[in-house]
Amino acid sequence: MNPVDRAISDIVLIVDDVPENLSLLHDALDEAGYTVLVATNGESALQRARQSLPDVILLDALMPGIDGFEVARRLKADFATQQIPIVFMTGLTETEHVVAAFAAGGADYVTKPIRPAEVLARIAAHMQNARQMKQARSALDAFGQATVAVRAADSRIVWQTPLARDLLNAYFANPETVAPEELLAWIAAANAARRDQREPAPLLTAQGNKRLLASFHDQTGDDEWLVVLREENDASAVESLIAAFRLTQREAEVLYWVVQGKTSKDIGDILGSSPRTVNKHLEHIYEKLGVETRTAAANLALGKMRGG
Fold first, then answer.
1. Under a CB-based contact definition with an 8 Å cutoff, are residues 239 and 168 in contact?
2. Which of 17, 55, 96, 193 is an S-S bond match for 130, by CB 3.0 to 4.6 Å?
3. What mean pLDDT is reported for the chain?
4. Residue 87 region, left (φ>0) first, then alpha (ψ -120 to 50), else beta?
5. Which residues pair with 91 in a beta bridge?
6. pLDDT in tens, 11-59
7. Where 4-aspartylphosphate occurs, residue numbers (predicted)?
8. Does residue 159 register a pLDDT over 90?
9. Which pairs with CB-CB distance under 8 Å and at least 24 residues apart come from 114-120?
10. What sections of 143-233 are H helices per DSSP?
C-alpha cells in the first residue's frame, strides 16, 4: 500500500531494548507509512499501549526487568488492550520459546536478526485483521447494537459495545471484564440447544415487566461467543406494533396479547373489554396486516417485535 493511502490509525508500537533494532524497525515501518511508537522496556510498553491503543505491537521477547512474555500477559489481561495483536521478536527458535510466545498471547513471531521485509509482511497481515475488527466494532457501536463477546472457558468479556455494557450493568451490576453467571448459563444452554438443532430460548432474565433477551450472532473463536442482547418490555413492544402496522393503541395492545398466547376472553379481562370488542379489534388488525388468521397475525407481529 502506498504510504499516502494508509489510514492514520495504523499505529505500530515497537518494544525493544536494543537501539539498533529500534532504529532499523522504525525506519522501515515509517517508510511504509505507519505511525510508529517506541518503548525500550516493559513498563513503558504497558503505559504506551494503554495510552495510544496501537493497532499492532511488535514485542521483543527477552528484555531486562519485565520480559516480553510478561508484558504480553498483562496486555491480554487488560480489557483496553487485550485485542491488540502482538508479534513477538525473538532470537530463540526452540519449540518451548515459541510455545511460550503463543501461550502469553502472541499472534505471531519473527526471528532475529530482524529482516524488515518479513516484519512488514507480518505486520500488514495483522494490521488488516485489526482494521476489520475495529471497523466491525465501530459499526456495531454506531447502530446501537448491544453486542458482547464472551470467552466461556474463563468467563471473560472479551469486548462489548456501550449499549451492551449499559444493559449488563442495569440487570446484573456487572463488572467490566467478567461475564455474569446468568449469561454464561444461557450460552451453555443455548449452545446445547443448537447442537440438538433446537431454537435457543431467548430469555436471559426478567425484572418486572422488562425482559433481557439474548441471541447468538456468531462464534468468533474457540469457546468465544458473540451474543446480541435486547431489552423488551410491554410498552416498547406495543409501540413497535403501532409503528410497524399503523395500528391504534388498543389494536396494538390486543395484538401484543395475541402474541403472548392469550385468548379473546383473557385479553378482554386484561384490557377491561368484552371478548366481542376484542374480536372486532382483531378484524381490523387482520385487515391492516393482510392476514386471515390469529396465528398468522401473531407470527408477523412477533417478527416485528424481534426487530425482523
1. no
2. 55
3. 84
4. beta
5. none
6. 999 999 999 989 999 999 999 999 999 999 999 999 999 888 898 999 9
7. 60
8. no
9. 114/21, 114/24, 114/25, 114/89, 116/24, 116/25, 116/28, 119/25, 119/28, 119/29, 119/58, 119/87, 120/28, 120/29, 120/32
10. 162-172, 181-195
Tracing cell 446445547 back to the chain, one arrives at: 192
pLDDT digits (tens, 9 = 90+) for 106-158: 988 888 888 899 999 989 888 877 766 665 555 555 455 788 888 888 888 88
Pairing between β-strand 146-151 and β-strand 224-233 as defined by DSSP bridges: antiparallel
> Three-state DSSP class for 212?
strand
Average pLDDT for 180-186: 91
DSSP H or E segment with residue 225:
strand 224-233
- Who's near 192: CB < 8 A, 6+ residues apart? none
Angle between helices 275-289 and 234-245 (to 10 degrees): 50
Strand order of the sheet with strand 11-15? Answer: 35-39, 11-15, 56-60, 86-90, 108-111
pTM of the predicted model as reported, rounded to 2 decimal places: 0.49
User: Do the beta carbons of residue 160 and residue 178 sit within 8 Å?
Assistant: no
Quote the CA–CA distance of 33 and 49 in Å, as a whole number. Answer: 20
Determine the Cα–Cα distance for residues 278 and 253; give it in Å rounded to an integer: 10
- pLDDT for residue 176: 72
CA distance 160 to 79: 10
- 259-285 per-residue burial string, b: 16 or more CB within 10 A, e: under 16: beebebeebbeebebeeebbeebbeeb
Contact 194, 119 (CB under 8 A): no
Task: Name the phi and psi angles at 175, rounded to 5.
Answer: -70, 165
Distance CA 131, CA 135 (A): 6
pLDDT confidence of residue 5: 46
